[in-house]
Amino acid sequence: MPKIDEKLHNVTARLTAAAEAAGRHPQFVKLVAVSKTQPAEALEAAYQAGQRRFGENYLQEALPKQEALAHLPDIEWHFIGPIQSNKTRDIAEHFDWVHSVDRLKIAQRLNDQRPAQLGHLNICLQVNLDAEDSKAGVSLQALPELALKVSQLPNLSLRGLMAIPAPREEQAAQRASLARLRQALEDLRAQGLALDTLSMGMSADLEAAVAEGATLVRVGTDIFGPRS
């Protein structure tokens, strides 16, 4: 079985190749290692191999890992899972990015509970591209109003959009879906919002996402192996 450093190298190589194929510089596509269900030792192995951005879905798992890895400098913590109202304080206090904001109430709570000494909390709005009942996310129709309101919250920095599209096998179909998120970002920019982030793409659609402008790609299994 390949070790975490070898898997991480392989994923990074895929990202670089995808960026170059799309005529983009690889430095503008960042990897978030999705570390849910993985032990702190696995994250430290990835850190020692050069990874710095880690994505966690479950607060109750993330906080002990953050404590265990507190001795490591410059880790960037991304919260990428559904957000319950009673979890916003800990998320606001312990994360650098939140990818999964889809309601104004959650954004307001994160804003109000963000410690001043930590600076702005980076936010992506999660969009439900395919109107799937099983997934969170604001609709494309409701997105502009939510984005405008979140952009006005003083302790948050609205950076862009995130989506988890319905699975599609063909890259052309993957790109068509992800292009809708890219277009939504461009439309918001045209309305005056200074957005720079598209959080999209996972192991199965990484190449399609990079081709459509992803700036943060979230990969778990191809780095850490099957979930523990």
Automatic annotation (TrEMBL):
Residues covered by the Alanine racemase N-terminal domain: 17-226
Coiled-coil boundaries: none
Keywords on record: Pyridoxal phosphate
Reported cofactor(s): pyridoxal 5'-phosphate
GO terms for MF: pyridoxal phosphate binding
Domain of life assignment: Bacteria
Record-listed N6-(pyridoxal phosphate)lysine modification sites: 36
Pfam families: Ala_racemase_N (PF01168)
CDD domains: PLPDE_III_Yggs_like (cd06824)
InterPro entries for this protein: Ala_racemase_N, PLP-binding_barrel, PyrdxlP_homeostasis
This protein's record includes keyword Amino-acid biosynthesis: no
Family designation: Belongs to the pyridoxal phosphate-binding protein YggS/PROSC family.
Entry function: Pyridoxal 5'-phosphate (PLP)-binding protein, which is involved in PLP homeostasis.
HAMAP family, per the entry: PLP_homeostasis
Name of the protein in question: Pyridoxal phosphate homeostasis protein
